[in-house]
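Cont'd.
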Amino acid sequence: MTPKEASKLLNRVFNFRNAFGRKVMTIRTLVCSLLVISVVLLLCCNWFSRPPSLPRSYSIPVSEPSSTYISKRVMLVADNQLHNVYGEPVQILRSGLADKIVQTSIRPIQLDFYGQDFLRWVVENSLDSFIHIGDACNFSCTGEFERFWKIMQRAKKSWVMAPGNHDGYFFGNEHRDVDSSDWTAACMNAGKPMSKDVFVRLYLAALALQQRPDKPGYQDLARHLGLDQVKRADLEQTASAILEKDLNQGDWKYEAGEYSFLRSLSWKIDEERPWQSFVVQEVDLSLDNSKLPSVRVIILDTAQYDEAPQLVPLPPYLNAGLTGELRHDQHKIVIDWIESNTDKDRVYLLIGHHPFDRLSKKAQEALDDLRRRAEALFYVSAHTHAGQFIVHGRDNHEDKWLELNVGSILDWSLEFRGLQLERTRDDKRLVLRSPRYTMHERLFTLMKLPINDKTWEAKQGDADYYLAHENLKNLDANKTEIQLKNALLATYHRLIRINPTKAGDNDTPWPSCCKNDEEVLAEIDRIMEDVLLDKKIKFLVELDHFEQGRQVEDIDQHQKFRLSQAIWASKYDSVHSRKPLKDNWFIIFPPKNKKKE
Amino acid sequence: MPENQNTSPVVYEAMNRELKTVKDYFAHIGISVIGIEWEAEIEVGTEITPGQLLAYIVWDGPPKERLEAPVECGGRIEWKNGQIKYEWLHLESQVLLRLAAS
């Protein structure tokens, strides 16, 4: 059929006539009408979907106003997604094909491997306390949480966290039996699957292990839990003690006169229905000055569900990655906390992992209720990895409220923020000071990273190229995992090649095959050629032990190398190609004679 | 470099007329700075003189510390930093004020 014939046919079909036989609609008029309707609909959608503005009474200055400080400062970090790179294949969810649908299903192996150095750098270099807004882990394994805890242990002050959907649910989506083959495979060499009840127990242990003479609140909590006699800082052992003591439900409040970052804690560990387990906390940011209002932060658990979250969210089930929830028992506890605070000038902030728009209707109502009761200044969330301010409420209404969504410290643009409150000197209005920092800006400013060394950066064609995972299209998780493990082996190869082990250190935990770097590098080459996944995993675990325990010749370079790798992996992953981003200043072109290549 | 790297929180660099924080001072103390509370009159256009009280450093824990204009730091304020990164004073020196050329 020619286009002309097709047009005639369509005209005949749409050759509508009225009662007098007059033509009322032709194909042309129909198309025009549809176009007009589409434009009108688009305009309407645009009109209705336009994000609301803040009311006139808010000011958004770019410089710090003349003000006095009314709170201590905390650092906000989120979504570091610590991922077990030594696991076994996970069918479907970790196949090359799945990554085409969900971009974060597979990250560059270098980002999984080096990316936690970002969190570690911030924690080690900050003098402030931390509030982590969830997704400390990725698969949700006890070993992932333990590695995370070891990083947070380096904080000079206190830290707390809001549970995220990856902290208790398999791959952030669903509750599964902890014996399920996929979850067990994912957690191979990283402890056990961490269901929500296990997470709460481990987290309580992590809080108790913060006890120090200069942290009376944490000491008091450890005493309350009967864990003040814990000698060794062993997370697993402390969590086992909580299990033995049957501390499945409890409340704690710090009521002594001294300052404590953590003020209140309430938890439930439900082994029958792990998804109903929760931990909710109250943090004190007040300054030591009775003339100033008290500033409290309530850290909600938005990963507490009525029904076990499922991958396919058919009602009444939710997918924890898509929707957050909090139950009535947690809601009631927070109401009690708010109502028992008699300070008239108190200021409350609310924090939870899921953004307000990603909460179930019931949870939104609960959060709204808490927000109103506490007259909370704003809500802080994470989860999106993007980070932004969100205005809630209808336009032309004064009752709008603000949400600060904090981006990921792992995925570009590697965000974290400070948070503190001030009060203007003249009219005593509250001021939020929340500078946004990015790892790449901080590392460039303070350490001139990443280092532009030809041998440091992996390029296209290299076995450890950061975007090699983009070419994985296989539905077979086993084949996908073999390729990822090979990329990880190549990553270790570059790491050891460029950062040699310090000679003469008798404590170096060499892999069983080797006694020096050359032998290790040769073994990596050999294992990469081997077709067996088990052998690769076994050797990688040895390499992990080796890297964690060895002394390198140049400690400073070693740190810079690792951070540079993480920056490149995150940056190129964000645009799916090795290219400059819009804020890059310099590009070195190839030599003239090689340009044609 | 001036001598008082560890004994004073700020240093005045006469060459570029900048009053800067001294990172070693903050690193040595090792306590978080809540903020710098400026005296009300310390704004762009104000004339300041050496020894004048400019602000208080609010540490995370009392007492506040007086921040005075160092020797030679006198003149009209041309620029005042409105985005001081208190989080990083122990790791990077930051310009607080710039004076106008006389």
